């Protein structure tokens, strides 16, 4: 890609991102929650499903928004595996020349009463479906969880004062590819 082409792409990217900051992240999160409910239902309440990432993307600021779904088909248990999968999706977006405006991850997670240590190590942990998302600018965050063992199934309130470090890995992968720090394939 020539220097001018890179500058043009960077300009399109920044205009698209600035335009997207006004999106209500709660709406995007609710769409992901609806999908997660269907996943939980399809697994008979076990909550055993394949993680997926929903991305709202554009080719440029004047192009229509597109919804792209990445199904994570591989290990997704430990941080290095999760980070690698999310960065791979981000690099894939760059390869497709799609600017990720926002992303929402649907995954399983452990939830436990507050204590020292990780929830996965707590004897009273339980599996939950979790939806977490953020915008490219990292100004908008959202997270909610659903315990598939409780009937009727009710989502937790959507939290907007939260961090989404795993979702941020998708944007890091995109930026790495855009800056040619890594091979985008």
Concise structural overview:
The chain is an alpha+beta fold and 185 residues long. Helix content is 36%, strand content 23%.
Please explain how this structure is put together.
With 185 residues, this protein is α+β, with helices and mostly antiparallel strands. The protein contains 4 helices and 5 strands. Helix 3 packs across helix 4. The longest helix has 18 residues, at 3-20. It is elongated and about 55 Å long. The mean pLDDT is 77.
Write the layout of secondary structure elements.
Elements: H1 3-20, H2 25-42, E1 52-58, E2 66-71, H3 79-95, E3 99-111, E4 126-135, E5 141-146, H4 165-178
Antiparallel strand pairs: 1-2, 1-3, 3-4, 4-5
Helix pairs in contact: 3-4
Structural class: alpha+beta
Largest sheet: 5 strands, antiparallel
Sum up the overall morphology in one term.
Answer: elongated
Helix content: 25-40%
Assembly of the depicted chains: single chain
- How many strand segments? 5
Mean pLDDT: 77
Q: Which strand order do you get reading across the main beta sheet?
A: 2-1-3-4-5
Strand content: 15-25%
Output the number of helix runs.
4
Q: How far is it from the N-terminal to the C-terminal residue, by CA?
A: 15 Å
How many whole angstroms does the radius of gyration measure? 17 Å
H/E element sequence: HHEEHEEEH
Low-confidence regions: none
